[in-house]
Amino acid sequence: MSAHIVIVEDEPELAALVADYVRAAGYSAAVFHDGGAALDAIPHENADLLVLDLMLPGVDGLTICKTVRATSNVPIVMVTARVEEVDRLLGLDAGADDYLCKPFSPRELVARIRAILRRAQASSASAPPIQVDTAARRIRVHGQQLDLTPTEFTILAAMAAHPGQVFSRARLLDLANGDSLDVTDRAIDSHIKNLRRKLSAAAPGVEAIHSIYGLGYRFDL
Question: What CATH class is the domain 130-219?
């Protein structure tokens, strides 16, 4: 399946031109001209790379970049009309993977997109599918941060630390009660159901938590 590129550019002609080149290179493309609309849509676009103009109506590109980077490792190329902005952006460590100054060649942009996607693909191939940050209490699956409750984090972090090991309901209940004193045995099923749903969204088609009849649950990813 081809990579999906989201282009956020308020100049319609330039946005259309970039989209044409991106599609000609074999990728799919979605175009947004307003920063606010783009920020709302990006979480649902499943983008493989973002091309972000710095100066946008509604919400500027720098804000979009920082907001996206807080929850996602999707590659980002920032575009600016002012050369001096590149130094400022680099100093701010906005989280973008590359910067391009206007006017630019659409062919050069596509070449950079190809290079970044190749690096991202190589990186994802070598990175573990699940990454647990216990200090920040964050879990990422294939680079996508999961929105977890404290109890869900505790359960998933413990299971992810011991893939292939069966966790009994009693063990999961002990883990859950570490975060809350009123977790019931029945609530474990609810937590597992929610975790399966969230894991499935980050890793479609993969069953990460398996039910082991009469014993409990096992995590494999």
Answer: mainly alpha
